[in-house]
Every structure is written in structure tokens, then in C-alpha cells.
Amino acid sequence: MDWQPGVEASFDAVDNYFLGRPKVDRIVVKQFADSNTLLANVLSGTVDMTTDNVLPIEQSLQLQDSWSKDNGGTIWFVNGPTFFLSFQFERSTPGFYGPLQDLRVRQALYQAIDRDTFAEAVLGGVPDRAAHAMLTPENSLYSYVKDGWKDRYPYDPPHATAGLEAAGWKRAADGMLINSGGERLSFPTWTTTGQERKLSAVADGWRKVGIEAGEFVIPAARTRDTEFRQSYPAVEITARGNEDVLLTRLESTSVPSSQNHFSGNDRGHWVSPEFDRLANQYRSSLKETDRGPLIKQLQDIMLDQMPIALLNYEVTTALCRKGVYCFQDDAKGGADAGRIYGTYSRNAHEWDVA
Fold first, then answer.
1. 334 in helix, strand or coil?
2. CB atoms within 10 A of CB 201
3. How far is the C-alpha of 209 from the C-alpha of 24, rounded, in Å?
4. What is the pLDDT of residues 310-323, one digit of tens each?
5. CA distance 152 to 194
6. Kind and range of the H or E element at 166?
7. 11-17 long-range Cβ contacts below 8 angstroms, 24+ apart
């Protein structure tokens, strides 16, 4: 193995690999600081393949269009992390926004978002990526949770308005919602750099029903500040893993605190003993006939109490140029072993170049 930090690393085939000697003698993993440079190298044939969304969606679509004209290669658009709204439940949070504790308000906020249009808009036109269930259609347990969020909470602005009115929020003369004390329904929504399009789309849907929706993009320098990240006062737009990794966002063992250096994933501080019990039972079950009903019960709790609200499956891309043989069995892997099909490199010994 040769390694040039920030440039590339070379990996040589192991002759006595237990699954058989790899077909490719050497694989060179290159690092590019700029996606335009990467795209140029792919088009020129200098780069044979990429994995896990190193090429942004827009440029992947551009490459797909180019390759479709000369059969230059194959691109797979794969469901990645699940994006969602997460509400804050820790009342001691500075600026904590109490009105969102009303379930009717959270439900109305969700039904004011056209998730199908939202997903297509934020993913460069890639269709059918709205997260209507906590598992993706490729998951073997998908039939147990299929369309759960869409069926319970379809996009319905009039119903959202009625729900807000039932919760005590009425339209003022300027079209914005106020309560009996004259206070506006006004709160900030946080997200990270790079997710501004999602933030704007959600805020736009809320403004249409009379909500004064603030937008806050976390400074890049504070993205890894775990204490700061768990202090959002109302709502955040974020993602958590892929498939059932989403469960770790809602388990009480994942609540951030000074004791765990604020490293927990449950930044909304929502706690449900029943959810914890079912999640533990789900993980300890091996049969799909046992796991399916359990994952449905877990999703039902999420639907009933709405600690989070699903938005879209992020799209990741994998690609290889013509003459390169990889991902032929499936392209559902990822950069980490937590993905349902494991890592992309799990069968690298079978990759080949014509």
C-alpha cells in the first residue's frame, strides 16, 4: 500500500485472499477537493468509478446525460440517509418554543409540506424519494411500514389550517397566525450548511399557512459542536443514517447530556420507555416475521406522537465507466458497514476492468 495524504492511496491485490485472488492487481483511491475536477476526470476516463455521493446530484445528472449519448458508463441513484424534521422537547433549552409541544401544531406543520414536490425539488429532479416510511422500498421489511407517513398525514394545507385553528391559532389581518394573546406563531428552524434548499422549501410551505418561519443555518465552524447542536429551540432539519439507523435518533440512551459530552443522537430529547422497549426487542429478533410487526409498532409510535417527521431519502450516487465491472450485483451498499448491503468494497475482489 502506498499513501500520499490528501492525494491518493494505492492498494495491491492479496494473492491468498480467502475468497480468491482479486481480479484487479491494484486499486488507486484518489482524493479530489473540487467536484468539477472530479467530473472532468470521470469524463476523461482518468477515474473509473466513484461511490457514496462524492459527485453531487446535479453533476451526476449531467454525467448521466453525457454518458447516455455514447454509452459511456452507468450511474446508480441510491437511497441514502433519511432527512426529517426534529422537534425540541427539552424545556430548559434557551429560547425553547412551547407551542410546538401541542401535537396538533406538529401535525399541522407536517401536513403543510408537500413532501413529494419537496423531495424532487431538493434532489435535482430525481423522482420518488419522499420518505413515506421509515424504511426504503428496497428493505425486506418495507411492506410492514409502507406509506405510513403518507397515509396518516397526506399533504393537505386546508386540514393543516383547521388543525392550527383547533389549537388556538387564528389568522390575523395580515394573514399571519396569532393566538388569543396576540402572539404570532413564530419560531426558527435550524439546519446545516448545504441544506439551505431544504430549509427554504419547508419555511415556504409554513408561511403559506400563516406561520412566521425563521431560517437559521448553523455556521460551518459549529457543525461539530455537539453541545451547540443539541440546543436548537424549536425545529431542526437533519438526517440520521439509513433505514432503521433512524431509531437511534429517538432512544433515551441517545439523549445528549454533559455526562456523555453531548454526543447522543437524540438532540430533540424525546423519551419514550415503550419506544425503547420495542427498539431493543426489534434488535434482538432475528426472524423477519418477528421484526416486521415490531418495526411497524415503532413507526406507529412515531406517527402517534410525532417527535420527528420524515421528509426525504437523500440520494447518493455510485458510478462506473464502460468497461469497468463493479456494483453489478446491486448498488445498495455504502461507505459504512451499517448499510443494509454492507460496504461497497465488500466484493471488491470481483471488480474487473475490460
1. strand
2. 19
3. 58
4. 999 999 888 999 99
5. 30
6. helix 157-166
7. 13/349, 17/349
The helix/strand/coil state of 304 is helix
Q: What is the pTM of this model?
A: 0.90
Question: What's the rounded Cα separation, in Å, for the pair 332 and 126?
Answer: 17
CB atoms within 10 A of CB 77: 21
How does strand 212-218 pair with strand 186-192?
A: parallel
Grid cell in block for residue 313: 431519502
Conformation bin of residue 304: beta by default, left when phi > 0, alpha when psi is -120 to 50: alpha
The Cα 59–Cα 124 span in angstroms is 10
What residue has cell string 383547533?
A: 166
pLDDT at 240: 86
C-alpha cell at 215: 431560517
Close Cβ partners of 135 (under 8 Å, ≥ 6 residues apart): 141, 142, 145, 243, 244, 295
Instruction: State CA 121 to chain mean position distance.
Output: 15
Cβ atoms of residues 97 and 318 within 8 Å: no
- Collapsing DSSP states into helix, strand and coil, what is residue 312? strand
Closest by CA to 316, choosing from 145, 37, 124, is 124
Distances (CA, A) of 318 to 72, 227, 309: 14, 34, 28
Q: How many CA atoms lie within 13 A of 131 on its CB side?
A: 26
- What is the maximal distance between C-alpha atoms in the chain? 77
pLDDT in tens, 100-140: 999 999 999 999 999 999 999 999 999 999 999 999 998 99
Q: How far apart are CA 330 and CA 334, in angstroms?
A: 11
pLDDT the model gives residue 219: 96
- Whether 58 and 315 have beta carbons less than 8 Å apart is answered as no
Give the rounded percent of residues in the chain with a pLDDT score beyond 70. 96
Count CA atoms closer than 13 A to 95's CA, side-chain side.
10
For residue 20, what are the contacts with CB-CB under 8 A and spacing of at least 6? 349
| pLDDT reading at 201 higher than 70 | yes
